[in-house]
Amino acid sequence: MQYNRLLIFLFLCLANFIVKGQDLQWTEIASGIWKGVVGKPEAYDLIKASGAAPNKEALIKLGAVAFPLAQNDIVGTISDGKTLLRFPLEKEEQLYGFGLNFQTVHQRGKILQLHMDHYGGKDNGRTHAPVPFYVSSKGYGVFINSARYINVYAGSGVRKDSKNPPVEKDRNTDKSWSSRPYSDAVEIVVPAAGTEVYVFAGPTTLDAVRRFNLLNGGGVLPPRWGLGFTQRVKSLFTADEVEKEANDFAEKGYPLDFIGLEPGWQSKAYPGTFEWDKNRYPEPAAFVKKMMDKNIRLNLWINPYVSKQASFYKSITPYTGSHTVWVGEVPDLTIAEARNIFFGQLQKDQVDIGISGYKIDEVDGYDYYLWPDAATFPSGISAEQMRQTYGVLAMRYSAEMYHQRNQRTYGLVRASNAGAVSFPYVVYNDYYNHEDFITALINSGYAGVLWTPEARASKTAEEWLRRFQTVIFSPMAMINAWSSGTKPWSYPEVADQIKELALLRMQMMPYWYTEFAKYHFEGTPPFRGMSLETGFKQEVRKEAGSDNLEENPYAEATSKEIKDQYMAGEYLLVAPVFTGQTTRKVVLPKGKWYDFYTGVYAGDGEVITVTPGLNKIPVYVKDGAIIPMMPPLLHAPKTGEKVDLEIRHYGEKPGTYLLYDDDGETFNYEKGEYSWREIKTEKDKKGKWRGTISAAEKGKPNTIGKVSWKFMNPKPLKGSN
After folding, report:
1. Res. 717 pLDDT band, cuts 50 70 90
2. Which residues make beta-bridge pairs with 601?
3. d(Cα 585, Cα 470) in Å, to the nearest integer?
4. Model pLDDT, residue 25
5. How far is CA 275 from the centre of its chain?
6. How far is it, in rounded angstroms, from Cα 637 to Cα 89?
7. Residues β-bridged to residue 585
8. Which of the four pLDDT bands, split at 50, 70 and 90, describes residue 301?
9. Which of 13, 204, 330, 677 has a C-alpha 20 to 30 A away from that of 104?
């Protein structure tokens, strides 16, 4: 009996030890970034998959800051082979992030499983970029470095030992009773016996986002041509049909920088051979050169599943997984031999003859076509981890091909994750809700990814124009006509407006290019939500009783989600109009704002109602903003080509802007071959606006020709000097 009691006592002690919360030891690994370790982290994680290295120099420039949370309130626990994490929440906090969501911006109160998948129409964590990173309105961020399906309870569970327990209410008599009591913690379950945790300080929420991006190497700096216009042609187009498409763009005066070829470029697809179809493209090298001579680059669709008809099938088979996708072998891209064979084929057959990039399709999900979690891979990486990172691996090693050639690329991908911030790819999918596309564009800024609200086809000319307007103010200006064959001029009644928008995209290239340079060097997302904008303050809703059992209990943190307007670069606020709308409300942050097209004063820290008409997407500019513009060329400037600038200034405040410049195509900027030209605008003694731009640096690239100035100040404000 005594022996049995001793065994029970030891068992209880062991059980208590297993579930005991661990004290996280925090190490500041870079300015404003701390790493903590719980248990024994797995050897394979998101950062290792991406190979990301922090930009420590840029992080130092953000300045030293204190740890942003009470360390004792962060708890890590190992239980049942899982890591349980808990982070504190204050009543006034709102949360953003947790991956590429499409319908919601506010994430407090959500229950999610961050699981790589095609987006299925509901924000439940299954998405194309299930990034386990979130930021708080209190100006800090948290990242869980695990390549697992992570369960998130973003302020939804109530612990009985809570420091801020909700008040017990009687539903029979209290109308303010809610089925979702207040919770003061974010709780996260990682299905592994250990993980790394990173905490990012601000002081602002945008600073926390910047630090996350810079931890992962900083954002991508695309080639200039990548920020031009792209058309993806029908799947089974031939070389002659592709050339005709390019000729039609030129003859009709529509800009075009690169064309996307869909599966029909390959001899077989689904699964693929990764070899040219000799009937549709009999002379690939000559075809690619002919298109390049027209200043048109080519981007090729692939999904990385290998057909038995591929010339390298036998050599790669030993390095593939246990299951197939569409009967195609799945290369284990964590193994060097598999990478050498697979990307070696792409290199010799396509990249070496001048192909400029790839669209990497169907690496995201749909459980019924992707490998199951029961699959195994020769590296020993689990099927779950492989699913969470396969798109990251495909981006990483395809991008390396171009980096080795000192040639920048820019492409599309269906799956991304943390660590992939610096990769030259934009996320897309087959979901086609316009409103949700804009919400995704907003959320991309919290997730360290880029997203394109592409246009494919439309039911009406109005819808086509509205979709195209948002395409222009996005990371990739693209029509994806792989199925529809749609052209910019397919809706004749709005063809002129479409051309004007496409040319505006080209005019704004100096601005877009500089804003992407800030993404790379400073970590600032070029497209981002309003909560990251200084001076933006939403009206807080008052708590009120409700019979709705799903009422959000976070009254102090709850306001109307702003998920249909966003910041584009440092100075522009974009407020899309959707099909059927004639008016819309725009929430202007504090400070004077002006109409982008006319320079007319719009408002200051207020909600305005606008009626833009069909031809305009509402865009507003900060007081003192400087927007550099170039002529409306049909192609992006080539390396070394100089372009004239028209520098626009808005408002009544003097302005300062650093304009980025490099050769536009190579990685020579990594060797210091770039410059920031300072632009300044101010009034002279007579009250007349004047502008200056600093001289080009000796030995640095200089693509700037003549400079002219346009002061968008049609009428002075009443009472202004």
Report:
1. very low
2. 594
3. 17
4. 87
5. 31
6. 49
7. 609
8. very high
9. 204
Cβ atoms of 655 and 649 within 8 Å: the answer is yes
Check: CB of residue 455 under 8 Å from CB of residue 480: yes
One DSSP character per residue, 281-336 reads: -SSHHHHHHHHHHTT-EEEEEE---B-TTSTTHHHHGGGB-SS-BTTBB-B-TTSH
Contact, 83 vs 192, CB < 8 A? Answer: yes
In the chain the first and final C-alpha atoms are separated, in Å, by 93
Mean of pLDDT over the chain: 93
Bridge-based pairing of strands 411-413 and 425-427 is: parallel
Strand-by-strand arrangement of the 33-39 sheet: 27-30, 33-39, 194-200, 141-145, 133-136, 95-97
pTM above 0.70, yes or no: yes
Distance CA 426, CA 345 (A): 23
State the Cα–Cα distance between residues 615 and 468, nearest whole angstrom.
Answer: 11
> What is the distance between the alpha carbons of residues 133 and 582, in angstroms, rounded to a whole number?
37
pLDDT tens sequence across 17-38: 333 445 688 999 999 999 999 9
Helix (H) or strand (E) run with residue 602 in it:
strand 601-604
Contacting residues for 15 by C-beta, under 8 A, at least 6 apart:
none
- Bridge partners of 709, per DSSP, are 647
CB atoms within 10 A of CB 431: 14
Q: From CA 603, how far away is CA 596, in angstroms rounded?
A: 13
- How far is 236 from 623, CA to CA, in rounded Å? 49
Edge to edge, the sheet with strand 619-622 lists 527-528, 566-568, 572-574, 619-622, 592-595, 601-604
DSSP assignment of 331-352, as one string? B-TTSHHHHHHHHHHHHHHTGG
721 or 570, which is more confident: 570
Q: Is pLDDT of 4 > 90?
A: no
| CA distances from residue 502 to 49, 545, 577 in whole angstroms, order as listed | 37, 50, 18
Residue 636 and residue 509: Cα distance in Å, rounded?
8
Q: Residue 631's CB: how many other CB atoms inside 10 A? A: 13
pLDDT digits (tens, 9 = 90+) for 145-159: 999 999 999 999 999
Mean pLDDT of 492-503: 98
Neighbours of 643 (CB within 10 A): 17
Report d(CA 298, CA 287) in Å as an integer: 10
| Contacting residues for 128 by C-beta, under 8 A, at least 6 apart | 100, 116, 117, 118, 119, 364, 391, 414, 415, 416, 427, 429
DSSP 213: H
**pLDDT number for residue 24:** 86
Nearest 5°: the CA angle 175, 180, 184 is 120
Within 13 Å and on the Cβ side, how many CA atoms surround 509? Answer: 31
| Cα distance between residue 485 and residue 12, in whole Å | 68
Burial of residue 658 (number of CB atoms within 10 Å: 0-12, 13-18, 19+) = middle
- Residue 15's pLDDT band (cuts 50, 70, 90): very low
Q: Residue 640's pLDDT band (boundaries 50, 70, 90)?
A: confident
pLDDT of residue 58: 97
Residue among 324, 328, 331, 425 at smallest CA distance from 372: 324
Q: Are 582 and 574 in contact (CB under 8 A)?
A: no
Cα 529 to Cα 540: distance, rounded to the nearest angstrom: 18
